[in-house]
Amino acid sequence: MTITTKKTKSYKLLLLSLAIAVLSLIVYRVFYSPSTETLNVKTFRVSGGWGYQIYVQQKLYIDQPFIPAIPGKKPFPDRMSALRAAKTVKAKLLRGQRPELTIDDILKTGVDSLGNSN
Q1: CB-CB contact of 84 with 52 (8 Å)
Q2: In whole angstroms, how far apart are CA 68 and each of 100, 113, 118?
Q3: Whose CA is closest to 62, among 79, 45, 87, 80?
Q4: Given CA atoms 78, 74, 58, 100 in this order, what sign does their dihedral have?
Q5: Which tens digit of pLDDT belongs to each residue from 42-84?
Q6: Which residues, 6 or more positions from 34, have their beta carbon under 8 angstroms from its beta carbon?
Q7: Is the Cβ–Cβ distance between 52 and 61 less than 8 Å?
Q8: Containing H/E element for 33?
């Protein structure tokens, strides 16, 4: 007959909880977390410039026809700046971050704070 103490029971419960947490994380990363293969970016022409779209598992997830983080609804001035912005959003999604672009993110795409090419 084995004598089980409260400390031993607590330790076993802690290990079980930890195992469940690790298993849950693995299941999430495998089945629910976006991966490079499931995220695709596309640029498209709009009146006066460019926009971008992000697809998750071939379903439209983000449709961005204008530059976020600047006033008004001005499109990206060229395809490359729209593509750089889309890739920044994709990278944020892959890191588990919100897909928001800040003014600093926009400036890194080659667009100034007024929406013009640098």
Answers
A1: no
A2: 8, 10, 17
A3: 87
A4: positive
A5: 999 999 999 999 999 889 999 999 999 888 899 999 999 999 9
A6: 56, 93, 94
A7: no
A8: none
